[in-house]
UniProtKB/TrEMBL annotation:
The gene is rbsB_2. CDD domains: PBP1_ribose_binding. The complex is composed of an ATP-binding protein (RbsA), two transmembrane proteins (RbsC) and a solute-binding protein (RbsB). GO terms for cellular component: periplasmic space. PANTHER family: D-ALLOSE-BINDING PERIPLASMIC PROTEIN-RELATED. GO terms for biological process: transmembrane transport. It is found in: Periplasm. This is Ribose import binding protein RbsB. GO terms for molecular function: carbohydrate binding.
Length: 295
């Protein structure tokens, strides 16, 4: 009788241990981010982490440092860990194809965030409508400065869908309102490069009336260049709605920013991954709302 009780006790302890182990063994979702040296993508990562915690997933985050080779190496490293899903924010829409194909071969479903991939199989793409946002910025400039406005554009990283689409939307507005584009150069979504490129463009085009920067980091760099040059009457419009960008709008420094919800891109990314893993159907493209923030 004692032996039977002991056996039952051991079985109960073993079952409890198994249940505890199963509770701790969370499925892994991988998130590969183009760069964590940009507050926009930090916010996106934080949103994804928050939702992963809520839904009970382990989130592994890797930083590609804006380098396609580093991005590919990150995905290669992840293949050893065999995550259930791969969320990737591409460094370059074309170059990311090899990394996505690697995940495809390993039968790991892929979701792209903020920037599209031109190659490889992706179950869903989650992003703001960058074309709408670019046109929104151009329309605001036309409204504030007039149809004959003299404008400079600071572009993002060449090869990214975000830079291309924001530029296309801005061009639609330019053609509609007939404002004059004095110059348009890449500053790689970077604040310091935004400052340097804007200084050079200012030398060539001192009569500029407005600047559209394809993200807030470049807008803040351009703003610094204009302040240094004593040009307080030039309006600057950014894109993303980062904390620094919105603060600059509220302080009357930036005229406006086209606000994305990077945290929501991360949240919806993990939500969508959860649905895919449960066998539910998901949309191939999931839009995230934009809003023009002005003072």
């Amino acid at each position: 009788m004692k032996m039977k009780k002991l056996t039952m006790l051991v079985s109960a302890v073993a079952l409890s241990a198994t249940l505890s182990a199963n509770a701790l063994a969370k499925d892994t979702i991988a998130l590969v981010v183009s760069t964590l040296n940009n507050p926009f993508f930090v916010s996106m990562k934080d949103g994804a982490q928050q939702e992963a915690n809520k839904l009970g997933y382990k989130l592994v985050v890797l930083d590609s440092q804006n380098n396609p080779a580093k991005e590919l190496a990150n995905v290669q490293d992840l293949m050893v860990q065999n995550p259930k899903m791969l969320l990737i924010n591409p460094t370059d829409s074309d170059a990311v194809g090899n990394a996505i194909k690697m995940a495809n071969q390993a039968k790991i479903p892929v979701i792209t965030l903020d920037r599209v991939a031109t190659k490889g199989e992706v179950v869903s793409h989650i992003a703001s409508d960058n074309r709408v946002g670019g046109k929104m910025a151009g329309d605001f400039i036309a409204d504030k400065v007039g149809a004959d406005a003299k404008v400079i554009q600071l572009e993002g990283i060449a090869g990214t869908s975000a830079a291309r689409e924001r530029g296309e939307g801005f061009k639609q507005s330019q053609e509609q309102h007939k404002f004059k584009l004095l110059g348009s150069q890449p500053a790689d979504f970077d604040r310091t490069k935004g400052l340097n490129v804007m200084q050079n463009l200012l030398t060539a085009h001192p009569d500029v009336q407005a600047v559209f920067a394809q993200n807030d980091e470049m807008a803040l760099g351009a703003l610094r260049a204009l302040q240094t040059a004593g040009k307080s009457d030039v309006i600057v419009v950014g894109f993303d709605g980062t904390a620094d960008g919105v603060k600059a709008v509220e302080g009357g420094k930036l005229a406006a920013t086209v606000a994305q919800r990077p945290d929501q891109i991360g949240v919806i990314g993990v939500e969508t991954a959860d649905k895919v893993l449960k066998g539910e159907k998901v949309a191939t493209t999931i839009p995230v709302d934009l809003k023009l923030v002005t003072k």
